[in-house]
Every structure is written in structure tokens, then in C-alpha cells.
Amino acid sequence: MRSFQRIAVLVVSTALATAAITAPASAEPSQVFYIAPHVTVTEANTDGCRGATQYFNARDYQNVEINWTNATNEDHPCLRVDYYPVTTSRFCNFYFYVPSNYATARMEWQLESQTGERLVNLVFDENPYSGFTWLASSGHVPGDAPVSHIWFTDGTAWPSGRIGWGVDAGHGIMQVCDA
Asked: What is the model's pTM?
């Protein structure tokens, strides 16, 4: 497999491999893409973002390699985690891998379409979940335009708890699209 800025693995199947997700109601096969995160430290060694290290590596209770950070004040995000889904005109659902530990914060997600339209402040509370959990659908972007970019920062209106995410495509965002 080649490495690209936008990593996706295409799997065509009639059922999803993860028990936490139910297959779409359609009997048609779904297209499933696994999207890797891209982490960028946006600020470090400041009053708002103390220390040089803004996120940490660990394993969750399922032995999945993850990263985590502390939720910070929304005025001082210290890092940004980006996902670049496969752009398609088909309707898609997006499922985020929530680690089984190190994931206790409310997060604010952004979805952006190819045309630059954005759904802002999609609030997602990691605390009650683990495994792949529904985050959003392509219908959340104004005009039902294809989603081309999904991201979050550690800056949140609820600056407490830990934000956790999987480090590889198999534990990032799962994009499930109609066939």
C-alpha cells in the first residue's frame, strides 16, 4: 500500500466487521473506508499549552494503540487532529473509534464539504462510548455536499477530561457509504 497524505483503505462487504456498528438497512453492499488521523501540534510551551508534548501514546483496554490529550480551553487549542475521507457523491455515515480508556471528554468536531461549507461545533461526548461510534453523516453538511475534511482540536467549551483517538487507519474514522 502506498502512503499518501490522505490514507484510505477500501473494503467492499455486505456486513461490517465491527460489532458496535449495525449494517445499513439496504441489502446492497456498502463501501467501507478506514481513514487515518493526521495530528498537528498548533501551540506548545506557552501559558495556554504548557510543555513541548501536547499528546501522549498509550494502549486502550482492547490493546489498540491510541493517542490522548487533555481537553483545554477553547481559546487555546494546542493540537488539531484531521481526517480526510474519500470524497464521493454517495451518502456516507462516519464512525469515530473511541478508545476504551483515555476518552472522557466532550469534543467539538468540524465537518467540511468540497465546496468549503462547514458544519461547526458538532458536539460529541466520548465518555459513554468505546469502539466505533456514529459521529455524523454526509447529510450534516449544508447542501448534502460530499464531506472532504473532518477534524477536532483539544480546545473545547468543556475543558475537562481526556480526548482519545486511534493512531492508525483501522482505528480512526470508518466511512460507510451506500454502494
From this structure: 0.82
